[in-house]
Amino acid sequence: xxxxxxxxxxxxxxxxxxxxxxxxxxxxxxxxxxxxxxxxxxxxxxxxxxxxxxxxxxxxxxxxxxxxxxxxxxxxxxxxxxxxxxxxxxxxxxxxxxxxxxxxxxxxxxxxxxxxxxxxxxxxxxxxxxxxxxxxxxxxxxxxxxxxxxxxxxxxxxxxxxxxxxxxxxxxxxxxxxxxxxxxxxxxxxxxxxxxxxxxxxxxxxxxxxxxxxxxxxxxxxxxxxxxxxxxxxxxxxxxxxxxxxxxxxxxxxxxxxxxxxxxxxxxxxxxxxxxxxxxxxxxxxxxxxxxxxxxxxxxxxxxxxxxxxxxxxxxxxxxxxxxxxxxxxxxxxxxxxxxxxxxxxxxxxxxxxxxxxx
Length: 359
Fold this sequence. Notes:
The chain is an alpha/beta fold and 359 residues long. It folds into two domains: 2-116 and 324-341, Nucleotidyltransferase, domain 5 (2-Layer Sandwich); 132-315, ATPase, nucleotide binding domain (Nucleotidyltransferase, domain 5), CATH 3.30.420.40. The chain has 13 helices and ten strands. The strands form two sheets. The protein has a five-stranded mixed β-sheet, sandwiched between helices. A five-stranded mixed β-sheet has the order 8-7-6-9-10, sandwiched between helices. Helix 2 (44-65) packs parallel to helix 3 (85-102) and helix 4 (111-125) packs across helix 13 (330-341). The longest helix has 29 residues, at 259-287. The protein is globular. It starts with a strand and ends in an 18-residue tail after the last helix.
């Protein structure tokens, strides 16, 4: 059984062919980083246009790499939400056209569920399937959620961010400090060169659900620290570096980043990781989790991976490989297999749902 997956929820055009829910025959991702980098974030209108330019080429390459044709696929799976409406519309419209032309089933997939299934797929393929109930921490540029995952594919929302997502906080702090976009990978590279105790950030205290997240206060605390320490010249130097050299290496960044700023970055990353894991630990205890899934773009963060390995969860903690942490279509195809087996197909009125929820 093969499924062609299509993912266009934000700023990456992706297509993949997955076999039997386990084997990735191909996975192609066209990044729009160069397009959006100059603006310090994703511009929705530009993202839609880039998807239109790339989707035919990306899908064709995915099929060719998998050594198959559309007629060899049992279904086409596409992200229906959440995400940017214009971006989602491109993927959905193209997937509908393929299914109509070849008379094969169409499956709509929740983007967040795709991130969770990236881990489930790799765990099964590696011979160590996820044990249930599982706790899923999904942390990316647009999402920070905690879910209870049952073996039947049922999800229960335990906690969510009330403002900025974790990845969004990384990007906004990096932009504030002149590091450009995307900011998460840059902060992750520089944080080990600083002292995580260099700047004391207070833990977030939530009223109501203690498993909810909030990162806007931390972002504001970084802004206040920057204002108090007169960093305009060094920020200008980093922006000048970006203009002269679009992809600086770590040594270039260290040359224009004083020790005090490295301490700030290390402390910021340490605080984000602490907030994520403290709530994940509490949630795992509440549901008696047999395993913990950490998924989404922030799962690439080395500080989070190292801290999670040391955290006292008392059960396996599973991360996706870096290629399946960020947005990709293999995870969309993987999440579609249970729907294929249950014949849960989408109708032709499938529409993009920007605020689609998983539970």
